[in-house]
Amino acid sequence: MNADRRSIAYAHFHHVNEEVYRQIFDSLADITPVVQALPTDAALLDLTGALGYFHATPASLALLLQVKVMARFGITATVGIAENRLLATLAAQTTAPGSIQVLSADPQQITAFLDPLPVQALPDIGPKTAKALARYGLHTIADLRPVPLTTLQRITTATTGRLLAERAAGTDPRTVQPQGPPTTLSTSRAFPRDTLNPTAARSALLSIALELGARLRHTAQVTGRLELEVRMADRSSTTRARTLREATDHTAALQHTITDLYDTLALQRARLRSVTVRAQQLRPVQDSSFQLTFDRRTELRRRLDPLLDRANDRFGPDALHFAALLSDPRRHRNAA
After folding, report:
1. Same domain for 153 and 139
2. Does residue 316 lie within any of the structural domains?
3. CA-CA distance, 21 to 183, in Å (whole number)?
4. Is residue 41 part of a domain?
5. For the range 263-270, what are the long-range contacts, defined as Cβ-Cβ under 8 Å and sequence gap of 24 or more?
6. Which of 109, 183, 292, 327 qualifies as a FRET site for 249, CA 20 to 30 Å off?
7. Digits of tens for pLDDT over the chain (336 positions)?
8. Which residue segment(s) compose the domain that 325 sits in?
């Protein structure tokens, strides 16, 4: 292996919760100290130094990772390996779950791998950018590559155009930054099948807000920042985040911010696979304060939170629901 060539691995851990994810992340230090958390189910590893230390190949280290994670946690890992972060990520995302895909460093083979992929496969390319590119007949990375940089910048923006040109060529200067998972609480909802139904999406967001609020209050914490990630049927994802004016554990405030973040995506006809919300900048509730209001509805909903918590603690998590989450009208007698 060329000493100047890096070997980067992207590992995706299937069906993992936050607590297990943190344990998995800690165990990755046995393979390499250069690990970057990608909460809540992935990590980047720079294997360059580990190859010489273990006298191993990238594929054998990936297999070691898979065996360790399965043996200790019962979790399946999919691993992609390449010479940079972009290619390693795409390698993992385009192979079968539980597999290992190692991309050659040969430029012709990299081009052959990238060409058939849709432009949405590139990180940070959301539905809006993909739609703008599609208007000019740019559907795949093969379509994108020969387009002059100035043309891409006119279609999108100066920054996005430059990013598209670099990534269509398989170039990614970013390095793996050693950092552990931040202190967050995350909640996800995966749809039974990919959906276009806006009502289903909003019900999922309400369900997330209810769960997240209850978890914050049970751990005596408030959040100062919310991040919403929406994953589409084509495996692309888009993320929006917002810092709150005041840290909160109030379900209604969480729901309002989450819904507003979702509306800013303007997804329209995008087919959704899952939504995830991460509560960040956590701190103890005793270190926070909230603004008093004369809005009777807001105050009543604030008082409702502990009542719901007590009812669900005593009678089970399904004791009370918001009516919007109930598909069967006969169950509305338990609706809040």
Report:
1. yes
2. yes
3. 12
4. yes
5. 264/240, 265/126, 265/127, 265/230, 265/238, 265/240, 266/128, 267/127, 267/230, 268/127, 269/196, 270/127, 270/196, 270/230, 270/232
6. 327
7. 455 689 999 999 999 887 799 899 999 999 999 999 987 799 999 999 999 999 999 999 999 999 999 999 999 999 999 999 999 999 999 999 999 999 999 999 999 999 999 998 998 787 888 899 999 999 999 999 999 999 999 999 998 999 999 999 999 999 999 988 877 888 999 999 999 888 899 999 999 998 999 899 888 899 999 999 999 888 788 889 999 988 999 988 999 999 999 999 988 788 999 999 999 888 888 766 555 455 556 556 666 677 676 766 666 656 555 655 555 433 333 334
8. 187-334
Single pTM value for the model: 0.63
Structure tokens at 194: 């990919």
Question: Is the separation of the CB atoms in 93 and 209 below 8 Å?
Answer: no
Residue linked to tokens 């430059």: 162
Considering Cα of 191, then 193, then 198, then 200, what sign does the dihedral take?
Answer: negative
Last residue of a domain, one of 141, 171, 201: 171
Pair 308, 230 in one domain: yes
- CATH code of residue 113: 1.10.150.20
- Number of Cβ within a 10 Å radius of residue 199: 9
Indicate the number of domains in the chain: 3
